[in-house]
Amino acid sequence: MQPNCESTPALEQAPAEPEFLHVGRDDNLRKIAVRRRSGTLPGLFWLGGLRSQMIATKATALDRWAAAHRRNYVRFDYSGHGESEGKFTEGTISRWLEESIAVFDAYCDGPQVVVGSSMGAWLALLLMRELSGWEPPRGPLSPAALVLIAPAVDFTEELMWKRFPAQAKRQLAAEGVWECPSRYSTEPYPITAALIEDGRRHLLLGGLIETRCPVHILQGVADPDVPWRHAVELVSRLAQDDVVLSLIKGGDHRLSRPEDIERLIGIVSQLCKDHDGEAS
């Protein structure tokens, strides 16, 4: 049963194969896999986490909800992730932000509820900054609201570099890559010096963050990767008055339990209804 459903029409068939968008130029050109469904506005725009895919639990749950409610929905894989081209070790915040902007610009028409998970929450805020700075102003293409799940804002610096052991920092300096153990996989994550260094170009927690739209943050209190105090610090940096922080007791980093998914969909549903009411 879909939470907060006014009605539950038969689900549309999800796209069997992704579309591909070419991003970049020359030897930096890569094919980005995108799945979208058409529907009413505001639509949903999904930004996943590091090493995640657009067919993962939360992104797929939102797709089911969007299909049931005939909402426009766009999701994609960053380069080096899922069905997109590229090597993970070539990824940087600048590279993945470029792809996020390109997909948003190519596929999103009208107001959107932007949902960012972990690294995707950082990219969502950077996307908002880019949208507000574009000339001419993007106007109705700007987000109607932001939903940030376990927001790993500035994670390359605050949650990686400052926590790395001295041996890891020496290896990054000498070899440019360090195999970081992962609690989510038997294989370590290759973290590159380029990812860390490029992340410093995009740090947000040193000043106020202007979103110009409502923000709802979902944060697990038991999250071992993004401490709940990190989310509180983010709230203190958000200049917008309409900010809600939901701390979920017992919630981990993924927030993919059935009750977490129900909460997420309830929030997205309400934000869509709120925007519908403002537009009417």
What is the secondary structure topology, with strand pairs?
Elements lengths: L18 E5 L6 E8 L2 E8 L9 H12 L2 E6 L16 H15 L4 E6 L1 H15 L9 E7 L5 H7 L4 H10 L1 E4 L8 E4 H7 L15 E6 L7 H10 L5 E6 L9 H22 L1
Parallel strand pairs: 3-4, 3-5, 5-6, 6-9, 9-10
Antiparallel strand pairs: 1-2, 2-4, 7-8
Helix pairs in contact: 2-3, 4-6
What features would you describe in this structure?
This protein is α/β, with parallel strands linked by helices and about 280 residues long. Helices cover about 35% and strands about 20% of the residues. The protein has 8 helices and 10 strands. The protein has helices spanning about 55-70, 95-105, 120-135, 155-160, 165-175, 195-200, 230-235, 260-280; strands at about 20-25, 30-35, 40-45, 70-75, 110-115, 145-150, 175-180, 190, 215-220, 245-250. An 8-stranded mixed sheet has the order 1-2-4-3-5-6-9-10, sandwiched between helices. It has a two-stranded antiparallel ribbon with strand order 7-8. Strand 9 (about 215-220), helix 7 (about 230-235) and strand 10 (about 245-250) form a beta-alpha-beta unit. Helix 2 packs across helix 3 and helix 4 packs across helix 6 (about 195-200).
